[in-house]
Amino acid sequence: MLSELPARAVRADDALRADTALRHFRRGRPVLWQGDFHGARQLLHAIGRRTRDVPLLKMLLIPLDADYTVPLRRAPDVRAACTEAFGTSTEPKAIPLRELLGVIGAHEWRIKGVDVPVLGAKIHPHYGVFAPIRQEYLDLVAEAPVPEGFTAFDIGTGTGVLAAILARRGARTVIATDVNPRACVCAHENLSRLGYRVEVQERDLFPAGQADLVVCNPPWVPGRAHSELELGIFDSDMLDRFLDQLPQHLTPAGEGWLILSDLAEHLGLRTRESLLESIGRAGLEVVDRLDTRPRHRRAREDETTSLWRLQMARSRPAQ
Question: What range(s) does the Methyltransferase small domain occupy (predicted)?
Answer without folding.
Answer: 150-261
